């Protein structure tokens, strides 16, 4: 298979994948490019850091103003295999749970929102609290952890009694996983000087997930503006379709759904989903039938 054939196959797989796998593919793709770039720099005795500094998030606001795109790029960047492996495993596991309750656009929007929240917490901490004066400023941060924490916390707030099975531990409710994860970040932040910026960012991502779940329970989706921004950005690179002349058949399309039929159908679907979610909250995921799981999964796409 030629290089162009491989690229076309990868493009097709990426386009056909859901948002969760697209996020994972982007992270892995950036990781591979980063590793190859570092190898090339090493062979030519060039410091790779001089290039990656344009993708990492600085702790200094004066540096950040010069590179504002880093609030986005840092959350897709990893250098170490265990770092990306751990983050992607968490993203996959909790992303699947997230999609049972919410939709794919909300997953992508919250990933970005969690990363932004974590990045802002990181910069604010370094510039407000005297404790961080002992560290170089600017320091730099990278990784998807804050984004992943947002996706872990949001389902735990929406359905705290939802249970998942963990090796050696059995069934554990989501609320306990989220609480323990956040408390561990607080513990490491208070007891260790290692990766303090990362633990601060984790808390920012967790708060973004909490904000999303609580806002959505009140009927407000805080990821809408992010998705509109993403759509607007990618629309800049789309070629405008040429004007086409079409001829409509004078006969009415009797198969088209009327507004009343559409509203009736959507109301019925929402009632079914609400019944499944109520059962999920009361008895956990294992209590759902295969048809109910399938319905919930399809609704989350």
Description:
- This protein is mainly alpha-helical.
- It is 66% helix and 4% strand.
- It is built from 13 helices and 4 strands.
- A hairpin with a 3-residue loop joins β3 and β4 (170-173).
- α7 crosses α11 (224-235).
- Mean pLDDT is 87; it is low at 250-254.
Write the layout of secondary structure elements.
Elements: H1 3-16, H2 19-43, H3 49-52, E1 57-58, H4 61-66, H5 70-73, H6 81-101, H7 104-128, E2 140-141, H8 145-158, E3 163-166, E4 170-173, H9 174-191, H10 196-217, H11 224-235, H12 259-283, H13 290-299
Antiparallel strand pairs: 1-2, 3-4
Helix pairs in contact: 2-6, 6-8, 7-8, 7-10, 7-11, 8-9, 8-10, 9-10
| Number of separate strands | 4
Strand content: under 5%
- In the sheet with the most strands, the strands line up as 1-2
Assembly context of the chains: single chain
The number of helical segments is 13
Structural class: mainly alpha
Mean pLDDT: 87
Please write the string of helix (H) and strand (E) elements.
HHHEHHHHEHEEHHHHH
Distance between the termini: 32 Å
Radius of gyration: 22 Å
DSSP helix fraction: 55-70%
Silhouette? globular
Q: Which blocks of ≥5 consecutive residues have pLDDT under 50?
A: 250-254
* Largest beta-sheet details: 2 strands, antiparallel
Write a concise synopsis of the structure shown.
The protein has 301 residues and is mainly alpha-helical. It contains 13 helices and four strands. The strands form two sheets. It has a two-stranded antiparallel sheet with strand order 1-2. Strands 3-4 form a two-stranded antiparallel sheet.
